[in-house]
Amino acid sequence: MNSPAINLFLPISLLLPVLLFLVLATGTGCDRTPAKPSLVVYCAAGMRRPMEALAAEFQEKEHIPVELQFGGSNTLLSQIEISRTGDLYLAADSSYVLLAQKKRLASQNYPVATITPVIVLNDAVVTTVESIADLIQSDLRIAFANPDAAAIGKICRTSLQDHGLWDAFMQRIQDNGVTTPNVMGVATAVEFGSVDAGIVWDAVASQYLGMRVVQDPILAAEHSTIEITLLTNSKHPELALQFAEFVSLTRNDLFAEHGFHSKIPAHSPSPEVD
């Protein structure tokens, strides 16, 4: 009379080793290796080449992925303010870092390099241009970075306003020119001949072929300091500061290799702004 119970028990007992194997093989998930942290860096477009090289070198050395998001300095600041994400912000001018700090979006910052605006002409241009005044009076097609989005546009606007040339310059852009979201758009347009002239950072001009540089006295007086700053919403502040020091101190020479004026600080980081 007990045989049916024995027959029912046997198949179940045979399944137990299989079930035990599956549990041991898959585990509970508690002993899985946690995902490696990564860094998100908002980076002014004109710094693309040195920053890509630095990010690749840092990743290879420290095994920490670095994601670079490029754009105009002011455009990036707006993205940071809206998203409240990311670890570091590298701006083409220190004024944007100061603004980020005043908005409590960023804390300590490190100077990286300096840059200066220059006029660039496509190699095919035969018109003589020796100054911004010559550019305004010419019939050349001009590209200019949006002053409400890019650091170079903002700096040039202030400088030309101080010298009473801004209105005439912008009229030339409206009559026979284009605006771009960032400085790299200007450089590319000049290099490929879609425009005749533009204003870019001196370091950016050195990275492009097919154009010649004109040093304008007014623009030459403007020196912008590139800075990298820690974002207050960083998920990995210690790693972020490690990369910031790598950029501004350890491998700052890479900026010089790409035509920037290296600016190794005497002390770091800069104090936070109240």
Overview of the structural elements:
The chain is of the alpha/beta class. It has 2 domains: 39-115 and 225-262, 3-Layer(aba) Sandwich (D-Maltodextrin-Binding Protein, domain 2); 117-220, D-Maltodextrin-Binding Protein, domain 2 (3-Layer(aba) Sandwich), CATH 3.40.190.10. 45% of the residues lie in helices and 22% in strands. The protein has helices at residues 3-26, 48-62, 73-83, 94-102, 132-137, 151-162, 166-176, 183-191, 202-205, 217-220, 237-250, 253-257, and strands spanning 39-44, 66-71, 88-91, 106-115, 117-122, 142-145, 177-180, 197-201, 211-214, 224-231, 261-262. A 6-stranded mixed beta sheet has the order 2-1-3-10-4-11. The longest helix has 24 residues, at 3-26. The radius of gyration is 27 Å and the shape is elongated. The N and C termini lie far apart (88 Å). The model is unreliable at 27-31 (pLDDT under 50). InterPro entries: ModA, ModA/WtpA. Molybdate binds at residues 73, 183. Belongs to the bacterial solute-binding protein ModA family. Pfam families: SBP_bac_11. This is Binding protein.
